[in-house]
Amino acid sequence: QVHLVESGGGLVQPGGSLRLSCAASGSIFSINAMGWYRQAPGKQRELVAAITSGGSTNYADSVKGRFTISRDNAKNTVYLQMNRLKPEDTAVYYCNAEAMPAYSGSSYSNYWGQGTQVTVSS
């Protein structure tokens, strides 16, 4: 199975920065798109940012200009640099990867991390 391990969450003051990391492990043949989602209490899970294997990115309007997604294909790792954080960014952040296990013939599946808490507060 493909496993995603996240790190980097925590408590930060408004205007501060955090960098989230998500490393994919297991018997992986390849990874296509990777992304970050977040879910605040009482709200739907929403896409924050996504990046393709070729480096094309997509951001939610609420984070454009403040967040940057990147990836290191050699390490099977995706990052989310979060700057100028706001209280409304407070949520559980989840990593997602579209990956093909090594034992699979040709199919990709979506995998999720366990989630990491980001709290922006004074």
Quick take:
The chain is mostly beta strands.
Your description of this structure?
- This protein has 122 residues and is mainly beta.
- It has no helices and eleven strands.
- It has strands at 3-7, 10-12, 18-25, 28-39, 46-51, 57-59, 67-72, 77-82, 91-101, 109-112, 116-120.
- Strands 2, 4, 5, 6, 9, 10 and 11 form a seven-stranded mixed sheet that branches.
- It is elongated and about 50 Å long.
- The chain starts with a strand and ends with a strand.
- The model has no long low-confidence stretch (mean pLDDT 95).
Strand content: over 45%
Shape: elongated
Radius of gyration using CA atoms only = 14 Å
Query: How many β-strands, per DSSP?
Result: 11
Question: How confident is the prediction overall: mean pLDDT?
Answer: 95
**Helix amount:** under 10%
Query: If helices are DSSP runs of H or I spanning 4 or more residues, what is the number of helices?
Result: 0
Low-confidence stretches: none
H-E order: EEEEEEEEEEE
